[in-house]
Write the structure tokens for this entry.
Amino acid sequence: MRLAHLLRSSTFRLALLYMALFGASVAVLLVFIYGSTAGYMALQTDDTIEAEVTGLAERYGISGLDGLIRSIDERISRKPNGDAVYLLTDSQLKPLIGNLDRWPRVAPDSNGWLNFNLEQTTDDGDVTHRARARPFTLRGGYRLLVGRDMNALEATRNLIVRAIAWGLAITVMMALAGGYLLSRSTMRRLEAINETSRRIMHGDLSQRIPTRSTDDDFDQLADNLNGMLDTIEQLMKDVRRVTDNVAHDLRTPLTRLRNRLEALSANASVDKRTVDAALADADGLLATFNALLRIASIESGRRRAAFENVALDDLLRDVTELYEPLAEHKNQQLEVTVSKDVSVVRGDRDLLFQAFANLLDNAIKYTPPNGEIRVSLENGVAGPRIRISDSGPGIPENARGKVFKRFFRLEQSRHTPGNGLGLSLVEAVVRLHKGSIRLDGEPGLDVSLDFPKAA
């Protein structure tokens, strides 16, 4: 199963839609968790700073400046490498004690907080961290700054962001994998139905859609379709049986009638023109019934058992040699072009000969005198291609889909000899060989026959 076909399937697109909805839900949930966690940590940090500011202000009120300095020094000494930030200055912002060398040169935000860069020297060199502090003015003009190094909080936030990113990535990958597996399983079931349908369209009405005995939706669909195919096959058999019986039953009396007319034509006392006309009518009826029987035999698929490798170049030369005298009689130019290295096809030589002969006979019949007829054999996209073109009146575009129906005639008055079965037989032969036929050209007619290469 091709990956591109799988990716274009409606099942995979539906899986992608569910993935998008599920991914969006997961993203919203993770963002909520991030906002709640990061917001709580930031609020807790601010509350801790506020509590320390309050405690140090109370110590200043009880023990004075010396007591405040001792308290700050004790806190710094307990955790010299901690994330706490302290600075006590006089009214001129001259540092008295703390682990900052100067007052931050930033303006407070709307809530009175200072957010500034904190530079530290480590074994890896100078690093810069974000810091957040609350300034406080004491009696006597002293300025107190208490804050925290936000590096730990930023690291936690980054960790949460990475966890969210990985969570989303894993969710997407798992959804894609699940969508691929689900689509692949569904596409297998659909491909089995399509493959059976293609075989049925090529004439094998005995094919049935396989089931897995799970009684799921696909099995129920397959059972209904198989029941419909059973009915269609039986109806087709009945139609063929009736057609064959009618053709066989009428062919015998028509043959006897022709023989009697032929015997009468030998009698000098009989009007030969009348007898000859009756013989021609009998021959036309016999030809029609023989064509119907031949088409029915072709559509049944029984002729596939006798398939063999057929060289199309030799076959095409034999057909054109047979019709060259007829074209010369009408002063028509018959041109034949055969490409080199054209592959052979698997098929029935007699049926292919009949199909090409019908097309060439039509081209000669409907091309006016001094017209041109071109026959070519070339390599197509998937296999050999035969083209038969003429400079006749052609077939109107709105009638090209009807000319393959049995007994359809463009000339409704039916003055031209024929029974309207020639192109029906051609299409039946082409379908039997799993080929395709296309009608183009205006003016004139260009018939293209494409066949698959022989395996």
About this structure: The CA atoms of residues 37 and 158 lie 12 Å apart.
